[in-house]
Write a structure and sequence with these properties.
With 422 residues, this protein is α/β, with parallel strands linked by helices. It is built from twelve helices and 20 strands. β11, α10 and β12 (268-273) form a beta-alpha-beta unit. The chain is globular. Bound molecules: pyridoxal-5'-phosphate. Pyridoxal-5'-phosphate (PLP) binds at residues 50, 52-53, 71, 94, 191, 194, 230-232, 272-276.
Length: 422
C-alpha cells in the first residue's frame, strides 16, 4: 500500500548493492503494523512478538523498541530476543518437546513464564528447579480447549493435538500440581490458530479463553496472574481477501476484556502476533534470469524461489495462490501477460506464483513478492539444492541496513566433514 509519508524502498538500488535474491523489510511498515495492533488492544494487553514468523534479530529489536515482548520456542529464539534487548520479564517460552537445556536457559534468564505443553513437562521443570535449589519458577499451562475456533485456515482446539494439555486434564490436575514446589502456576495460555482475517473470530476466541482461564484457575485453586489468549491475526495475501478490520477489533477487544478486567484487575494479559506484525513489511526481491515459453505458457525463471519462500506454494491447505507479485519499476497500467514465476530448484513445486498478470518481463528484471515479511526464510527449505539462505535488508527512512548476510558455499560446506570411508 503506497504511503506518501514513507516512499517505497528503491529496490533496484538495493538489488545492486546487496545482490539478489534478497528480503527487504520496511521499518515504517513494521511500525505502522505494530501501531495498528497496539491501537486495537485495550490498555494493559501486552503484545508478544512470535519470533517464529521472522527471527531476524534486528526486526526483533525494532519490535522490542516499539514495546513488544517476545514469544519464543527454541534456545536460539530465546537468545535472539534477549540479545535484541527484550527484557526477560517480557519473554515467554512455549512449544512442544522442550529440551532440558532450553528449560535451564529459561530459568537462568528469568523469563516471565515457561508455557508448559504437558503435565509431564511441568514435573520435569519442577525436578530441574528442585535440583538447582532455585525459587519456584512461573509456569503457564497451555490448554487445548474443548471448543474449536472457526473461520480461519489452521484451527486448533477441540481435537487431538500434540500442543497443550486437554482442558479436562487441566481440571483434574489440582492434586498433581499441588504437590510441586519448584513451579508456581501463574496462568493459562491458549492459541486457537493462525490467519484469522475476521476480527470477530479473534474477539470470540479471546472471550472464550478468558472465561476458560478463570474457570480453570478456580478448579486448580490458583490465582490468575497471567493469561495469554494467543492471537493468530492474519493479513490479506490473495485477491479475494481483506486485512482485518482493526477498528472493529478494537471495539470488540475492549468489550471482551472489560468484565474480565474488572474481576482480575492485576492479571497480565498477553496477545501473541507474528504474521500481523511482520508480513506486510517484507518484499522478496528476485531477479529474472530468463523468460521461457513452454507449450504456450510463459515462465519467468528467477534466481530465488520457494527455497526462500515456501509459503508462496501454499503451506498445507491454508494458503492459496497467489501472493501479490509485481514487476518492480514497471509503470502502472502497462499491458500485461500471464507468467508463472519459478526459481532455481529442480522440482516443479518451485513455483512462487502461478499464472500472474505482469507487465512484459525480460531477463534482468526485478520481481517483488509482497507481504513476505512473515514465514519467509524461516519456514522454507533454504538448504535445498544447497543454495543457502539469502541476504536480508532493513530499510529505515530510505537508509538500508544489511541485517543478514547471504549464505556462501563455504558457510554451507563448513558445517560438513569430508570423511573418505573408501
Ligand atoms: C505460530 C504461533 C504464533 C504466531 O502466529 P501468527 O499467526 O504468526 O501470529 C503464536 N502463538 C503460537 C502458540 C504459535 O504456534
Amino acid at each position: 500500500m503506497p504511503n506518501p509519508e514513507s516512499p517505497e524502498p528503491d529496490y533496484e538500488r538495493l538489488a545492486e548493492e546487496f545482490g539478489t535474491p534478497l528480503f527487504v523489510y520496511d521499518a515504517q511498515v513494521v511500525e505502522r503494523s505494530h501501531a495498528a495492533l497496539a491501537g486495537a488492544l485495550p490498555d494493559g494487553v501486552d503484545i508478544m512478538y512470535s519470533l517464529k514468523a521472522n527471527p531476524n534479530i534486528s526486526l526483533c529489536a525494532l519490535l522490542g523498541s516499539l514495546g513488544a515482548g517476545a514469544e519464543v520456542s527454541s534456545h536460539a529464539e530465546l537468545v535472539t530476543a534477549l540479545r535484541a534487548g527484550i527484557a526477560p520479564e517480557d519473554v515467554i517460552f512455549l512449544g512442544p518437546g522442550k529440551s532440558t537445556g532450553e528449560l535451564e536457559a529459561c530459568v537462568d534468564a528469568g523469563i516471565a513464564a515457561l508455557v508448559c505443553e504437558s503435565l509431564d513437562e511441568v514435573e520435569r521443570l519442577d525436578a530441574l528447579v528442585g535440583r538447582r535449589g532455585s525459587a519456584p519458577f512461573p509456569v503457564m499451562l497451555r490448554v487445548n480447549p474443548s471448543f474449536t475456533a472457526r473461520g480461519q485456515g489452521l484451527a486448533m482446539g477441540g481435537k487431538p493435538r500434540q500442543f497443550g494439555i486437554d482442558e479436562v486434564a487441566v481440571r483434574d490436575a489440582k492434586r498433581r500440581l499441588g504437590d510441586l514446589t519448584g513451579v508456581r502456576v501463574v496462568g493459562i495460555h491458549a492459541y486457537m490458530g493462525t490467519r484469522f482475517l475476521d476480527h470477530t473470530s479473534v474477539v470470540r476466541n479471546t472471550e472464550r479463553i478468558l472465561g476458560l482461564a478463570e474457570s480453570l484457575a478456580a478448579d486448580l485453586g490458583v490465582s490468575l496472574d497471567a493469561v495469554d489468549f494467543g492471537g493468530g491475526l492474519g493479513v490479506a495475501y490473495f485477491a479475494h481477501e481483506n486485512d482485518p478490520d482493526m477498528a472493529g477489533l478494537g471495539r470488540g477487544m475492549r468489550e471482551a476484556v472489560a468484565d474480565f478486567r474488572s474481576r482480575n484487575p492485576h492479571c497480565r494479559l498477553m496477545m501473541e502476533s507474528g504474521r500481523y506484525l511482520t508480513a506486510a513489511s517484507g518484499t522478496y526481491v528476485v531477479r529474472v534470469r530468463e523468460v521461457k515459453e513452454s507449450m504456450g505458457e510463459l515462465f519467468a525463471v528467477a534466481d530465488g524461489g520457494t527455497n526462500h519462500h515456501m509459503a508462496a506454494v501454499g503451506v498445507g491447505s491454508f494458503a492459496k495462490r497467489n501472493f501479490p507479485v509485481r514487476r518492480l519499476g514497471a509503470t502502472e497500467g502497462a499491458d500485461t501477460r500471464e507468467y508463472s514465476v519459478t526459481g532455481p530448484l529442480c522440482t516443479p513445486n518451485d513455483l512462487v506464483a502461478k499464472k500472474v498478470p505482469l507487465p512484459e518481463v525480460r531477463a534482468g528484471d526485478l520481481l517483488g513478492i509482497g507481504r513476505s515479511g512473515a514465514y519467509g526464510p524461516t519456514a522454507s527449505p533454504g538448504l535445498f539444492l544447497s543454495h543457502g539462505y539469502p541476504a536480508e535488508v532493513l530499510v529505515d527512512r530510505g537508509r538500508a541496513h544489511l541485517v543478514r548476510l547471504p549464505d556462501t558455499t563455504e558457510d554451507l560446506l563448513g558445517r560438513q566433514r569430508l570423511v573418505r570411508i573408501r
